Amino acid sequence: MSTPLRYFAYLRKSTDAEDRQVQSIEDQQKEMTKLAELFGINIVRFYEESMSAKAPGRPIFNEMMNDIKKGKANGILCWKINRLARNPVDGGEIQWLLQQGTLQSIQTPGREYKTGDNVLMMSVELGMANQFVLDLSKDVKRGLNSKAEKGWRPGLAPIGYRNDRYEEKGNKKILVDSEKFPLVKKMWDLMLTGNYTVPKIIEIANEKLGLRTGFKNKNQKLCICHGYKIFTNTFYFGEFEYAGKTYEGNHEKMITIEEYDHVQKLLGRYGKPRPKTKSLPFNGIIRCGECGCSITADEKIKYVKSIKGMKSYLFHRCTKRKTGIKCSQKPISFADLQNQINQIVDSISLPETLLDFALDVLNKENVCESANRNILIKNQQKALGECIKKIDNLIKIYICPANADREFISDEEFKDQKAGLMKEKSSIQRELKNLDERVNEWIELTERTFRFATYAKYWFSKADYKGKTAILRALGSDFILKDGNISISLAKPYKIINENMVKINAENDTLEPSIFGLNKAKTSLLEPVSVVLSG
Length: 535
Prior knowledge:
This protein has helices at 25-39, 59-69, 88-100, 120-149, 181-193, 198-207, 224-231, 257-267, 334-347, 352-399, 411-462, 465-475, 492-507, 518-525, and strands at residues 6-12, 42-49, 75-78, 105-108, 111-114, 161-163, 174-176, 239-242, 245-248, 286-288, 295-304, 309-318, 332-333, 476-482, 485-490. By secondary structure, the protein is an alpha/beta fold. The strands form five sheets. It has a five-stranded mixed sheet with strand order 2-1-3-4-5, sandwiched between helices. A three-stranded mixed sheet has the order 10-14-15. Mean pLDDT is 78; it is low at 17-21, 510-523 and 525-535.
């Protein structure tokens, strides 16, 4: 008569998404007890565990397996085979013990796995359980990454915000907590003044503002670590990190980037300043007139009590990087430098009434240029035809029967003469191409010059830092700043316009086109443009 098997009942419940549909441990225990009575199974001990089986290292499971190896039981009773393992390490150990006979039976409500059975089906079921975990993990990661890319931070919302509980899964947003948002904003305002330490702000938040975390216990007070987490969290100005990447959030921002950066400086070693690159005007194109070093732009951001907010101060200064040279130049404000550049732009400006007149003259000039070009093209085409005939005649002489012994022209002579003619042909073809493009290029550059001179002042006043820098570059070169004054070597077309506009302004009180004769307009405004505008 065989000895009755002794069973361990293993009950596992996980809070992971994989097990949300699985019965609770209490329900599993009831079912296991009924099953034991039905099959006459002797349960030696119940092992209960609330932990995922997707990775090895479950303490209760390991304890049960060790007890089986010691012979305290030789059977396992469980709800499903995937309650025992969802990873290949634990699954392999179970199969090995079953194959060796140390474990003689695994009983579930729908099936019994025995030592002598084909282990293929168990391997398939355990493999399916493991694959389920892998697929689920990929799906979850894919969903979370997609959510982050849409601008919504996965996970628990920081203090001052709340997670949306009612939207569909994958579309849940982070909303403003109407009660806590203004209180956390008050904490940032206090920190920005520079008059309060983090512990003091936490004390004010707890005692005067009545702010509570609301994570585990709604009455839980904030501790100092909460303060540092708040003041170093980029989420509050609109950015968040997920899976090693930085995303721009769609949630409502509590502070500005400048306010966040200012707080990081106040925090010192506790802060983690956000790395950033910022485009400032005129960087790297102006040189110091005293020492020759570059002029750089600096921006200082300070909290101003009178406006209860951050204010930016932008100025330009010499980098003073040359050793052995003591530079005495002082910084100049961006506003002052901008006004000076604006005056230079104004000096090359054409009134709109003159622009139409100048372009009309330009088109008439183009008619003359086109006629001259056509004559040149005709001459070059004739020269090209003659060159091609020379090449054809050379080849005929070289291959004719009378030259079989190379009496008229040798191989070396043919090679040299042909190379010369081919070079002449290429030169004529290049000249033809240049002639075809020359007038169009001339009129395009000249028209660009006139239009830039007409609208540069307006563009400069409306442009951002990058646009203002591009306009300054287009004006010319050798930008020198000395004693608070900037000087520029104007590009040739703008220098011509500047000189003639000064002369015209001196001679006339108005700038109506009728004042100018056609010849004067040509000589004053339509000199050939030799410099292609940059920027």
